[in-house]
Amino acid sequence: MTMKVGFIGLGIMGKPMSKNLLKAGYSLVVADRNPEAIADVIAAGAETASTAKAIAEQCDVIITMLQTPSCERGGAGENGIIEGAKPGTVLIDMSSIAPLASREISEALKAKGIDMRMLR
C-alpha cells in the first residue's frame, strides 16, 4: 500500500516539492487557495481536495507550506486539518506563520491524540 500524502500550499516552494513526491511514487492529494497553482500538479497525477479537512481525512502524512500568518485554511478553523486528522497522522508544518499559531495548532491536535512536534 502506498503512503498517501497531503500537501497544502503549492507556491514557489510547495509546487516543486509536491512534484518530487509524485516522482518518488507517493499518492498525493493537494489543495491551494489558488486553483491555478495546482493545475500542473494535478496533470502530473495528484488528486485534489476542496478543504484541508478532506486532505486530513484521507492522508497519512500532511505537509503544509502556507505563507501567511492566517492559518485557517491549513490547520485551525472550519474545515481545517484539526477537524479531519486522526490519531497516527503525521503533520509536517513548513509554513511561514507565527510560532504562536503553530503552537496553537499543535495543542489542538494534541487534544485529539495527534502529535505535532515543534522545534524550539
Automatic annotation (TrEMBL):
Keywords in alphabetical order, please: Oxidoreductase
Which enzyme class, named as a word? oxidoreductase
Provide any one GO MF term from the record: 2-hydroxy-3-oxopropionate reductase activity
Cite the EC number. Answer: 1.1.1.60
Sorted alphabetically, the Gene Ontology BP terms of this entry are: organic acid catabolic process
Pfam families listed in its UniProt record: NAD_binding_2
Where in the numbering of this chain does the 6-phosphogluconate dehydrogenase NADP-binding domain appear? 4-116
Name the PANTHER family for this protein: 2-HYDROXY-3-OXOPROPIONATE REDUCTASE, 3-HYDROXYISOBUTYRATE DEHYDROGENASE-LIKE 1, MITOCHONDRIAL-RELATED
**Listed name of the protein:** Tartronate semialdehyde reductase
Species of origin: Escherichia coli
